[in-house]
Amino acid sequence: MNQEILDKAEQLINYTNGNICNHCLGRKFSDCVDGNGNEERGIKIREALNLEPYAPNESNREKCAVCHDLFEDIDTKVLDLVREKIEFLNVEFDTFVVGCKLPKEIVEKDQEISDEFDCNVEIIKKEVNREIGKMLEANLEQKADFDGEDVLVMVDFRRILNEGQENPIRVRLQINPIFIEGRYRKLIRGIPQTKWPCTKCKGKGCEECNFTGKQYPESVEELLSEVVLKHANGYEAKFHGAGREDIDVRMLGTGRPFVLEIKEPKIRKIDFDKISEEVSQTAKGKTEYLNLKFTERKRKVEIKGSSPDTYKVYRALVKCEDDIKEEDLEKLQSLHIIQQRTPIRVSHRRADKIREKEVKNIEAKFIDSKTFEMIIKTEGGLYIKELISSDEGRSNPSVSEVLGTQAICAELDVIEVGIK
pTM of the full predicted structure? Predict the structure, then answer.
């Protein structure tokens, strides 16, 4: 340690009237003094200057002018507070990150000294977070992970300068959500993908909805999420689907991709086999959930944003107003690029604009003079019911236009949802 460093250190110690702890002293020289942590650097500097060891617990000694000895609180108080919070919430986790909130006086004093002595080193908040993390890793046998943390441990020191403050340090655990990916099949008509609030009471509960707050008694989302919430001891579930089908449309084939987000799960290790078994008993053949697995947060954005990039295959039962012949169905091959204005039935919730969508393939099977079945593969986002009916000319061309008779979709099933 050269004399220039020692001179600067002595000036800094005098600047604080000798009241600076080893952490705060060592931090200001972390770029030029070797040591296993800032506390060790501070000890080395004191020894090189032949100074007495820093003794924060002496009754007649003032606290560190920078941190007010909060690093002592990390060693003596924070661990117990974190353990109490974990026990109170009964939360299970493997990984964590640490955050802290400091009094502005401490932050400002730390910056003042850095400016006064031209110290280009880390701020105190980073060291506090790191020291808490090291202490928790050593005592909880859990790992700090900044990329995939289960829990954020937030330690609030903002009250430590208040004289006589009871329990000045506060600890909060932010439990990060878990994400479960899979595919669902909806085997019956008449249930929505997600919960619909009652249109009359807006979810509050009234006679109209039998005080459930819901327009429909169950949904694809709820039949799964209620079981998962119980197993994960979570607070709330949110369903993210790759598009959605209408209530009167079945979702068959290999199913539609989705991500289920469980907020504040107290239990993160859940048994998908048990969940699948319980859901099958609850759903009673109405829905199925396939290939359930854990996934990452970013997957929900990919799933929700994938609808325009997918292809869909539908089975439609079509009814015609006038008689048609089997050879008339060949005309459907002319349907290729569709200019489709936002359908009337969804114009109240979607922007009114014209979208261009592609029909990739059509197979038609004649049933009788007014009925046929159509298997149609399309670009994601094409409204099939309106493609058939024309929606008062808003879909152009349409099945009705090509056949020269008004046609309607009597039944519709989604039989495949795929990615391009």
Answer: 0.84
Phi/psi at 92 (nearest 5 deg)? Answer: -110, 135
CATH of domain 3-175: 3.30.2300.10
Output the six-digit token pair for 110.
């730390």
- As assigned by CATH, the class of the 178-304 domain is alpha beta
* pLDDT tens-digit readout, 129-166: 999 999 999 998 888 887 778 999 999 999 999 877 78
In 300-400 the beta strands, taken as DSSP E runs, fall at 310-320, 337-341, 354-368, 371-379, 395-396
Is 246 labeled as catalytic in the residue annotation? yes
264-284, pLDDT tens digit by residue? 999 999 999 999 999 999 999
List 94, 156, 246, 328, catalytic entry: 246
Q: Which two tokens stand for residue 209?
A: 């909805």
Q: Which CATH architecture has domain 308-419?
A: 2-Layer Sandwich (3.30)
Q: How far is CA 314 from CA 30, 304, 412, 416, in A?
A: 65, 20, 7, 7
Q: 10 Å Cβ neighbour count for 228?
A: 22
Sign of CA dihedral 347, 352, 358, 364: positive
Same fold, 3-175 and 308-419: no
| Per-10-residue mean pLDDT, the chain, length 420 | 90 94 95 92 94 82 91 91 94 94 96 93 95 93 84 95 85 96 95 89 84 88 96 95 92 94 96 94 94 93 74 96 96 96 88 93 96 95 95 95 97 87
Q: How far is CA 207 from CA 192, 199, 203, 204, 213, in A?
A: 21, 12, 12, 11, 9
Contacts of 338 (CB under 8 A, 6+ apart): 356, 357, 358, 359, 382, 387, 395, 396, 397, 398
- What residue ranges do the domains of the chain occupy? 3-175, 178-304, 308-419
